[in-house]
Design a protein that fits this description.
About 40% of the residues lie in helices and about 25% in strands. It is α/β, with parallel strands linked by helices.
Length: about 300
């Protein structure tokens, strides 16, 4: 049997929750659906699905295989759509979502896009964190963090790292932390959507990470509020480089723990995996990729952002 068809049938069985529902959706007999699943399991030599008279569920191996095969089918579907849309002109409404602090990077891209594609109208929503793209009918989101269990398809635009920083006035009252562990004794201002909560993560030797449990007197989902509190000397901020780079360069904030690198994240262009990627979305992603290329060095700093020494 055709392997790609079997993968598609497998995905539909998982999504529909059963053989009969998948057969109806694909206009295929239940027997044929069962044959495709059996062929896939025979080829792999493993059981992918647990079958009972009432329901079908994934085995542990099946769950892992489904996640991988789903991405393969999405990429194949995208390749087909790219080929079909090469000669089409983007048109209609493009609904975007982005975080507050990426607006300054997005603005020139929106300007360029509207000039290049006058038949498209852009509807841009700005907020903090990630929202349900399907529920809000968002075509494309430009996000600095993805949920760990995200089912979104993500196009990596640029890596970025946090910078541990504080105001000079804070260091006038507190000792300079020498290692990440020292942060446990400081007032650490925390971003509510940081993926690891109140454990700040740093890269260690041989690809491992080290973490420190921090606490402080402010937790918020506003990066700008944390920046302002840091500037006033309230505490130490694990800050995205793109929020405080200018403050570091000007000396308004000082960089701490230069010998320790916070773990890497990425700004991504994300969309739902079931979403039919149109030419208007694809063309916007292409412009995003070009636009963010110039930001990569300073958004993922090691020694690329000048800062005064704190030793």
């Amino acid at each position: 049997m055709d392997r790609l068809t079997s993968l598609t049938v497998f995905g539909q069985v998982v999504e529909c929750g059963g053989f009969s529902a998948a057969a109806r959706r694909m206009n295929m007999s239940v027997t044929m659906v069962s044959n495709h699943i059996q062929a896939l399991e025979d080829r792999l030599g493993v059981r992918l699905l647990n079958r009972t008279t009432r329901k079908v569920s994934l085995t542990e191996i099946g769950k892992a295989y489904h996640e991988r095969s789903k991405n393969i089918l999405v990429e194949l579907d995208e390749a087909d759509r790219i080929a079909n849309s090469l000669n089409s002109t983007p048109r209609g409404s493009l609904k975007l979502y982005t975080s507050i602090h990426t607006v300054r990077f997005i603005a020139p891209i929106v300007d360029q896009y509207l000039t290049r594609y006058p038949d498209v109208a852009i509807d841009l929503t700005v907020g903090e964190g990630i929202i349900d793209l399907v529920e809000h009918r968002i075509d494309l989101a430009i996000v600095t963090l993805l949920p760990p269990d995200s089912s979104l398809v993500a196009r990596r635009l640029t890596p970025w790292r946090h910078i541990v920083c504080c105001a000079p006035s804070y260091l006038g009252k507190h000792p300079v932390p020498q290692t990440p562990a020292d942060l446990a004794d400081h007032n650490c201002l925390q971003y509510a959507f940081y993926p690891y909560g109140n454990e700040w993560h740093f890269e260690a030797a041989k690809g491992k990470t080290q973490s420190v449990h921090v606490s402080g007197n402010a937790v918020t989902n506003s990066g700008e509020l944390l920046r302002q509190l840091t500037l006033s000397g309230q505490g130490i901020f694990l800050a995205p480089s793109f929020i405080i780079a200018d403050d570091i360069r000007s000396g308004r904030l000082v960089r701490l723990l230069r010998g320790y690198s916070p773990i890497e994240f990425a700004i991504n262009a994300a969309y739902p995996h079931r979403h039919h990627l149109s030419s208007k979305v694809r063309s916007f992603i292409d412009l995003l990729t070009e636009g963010f290329a110039e930001h990569r060095k300073w958004m993922n700093p090691h020694d690329t952002i000048d800062a005064p020494d704190t030793d």
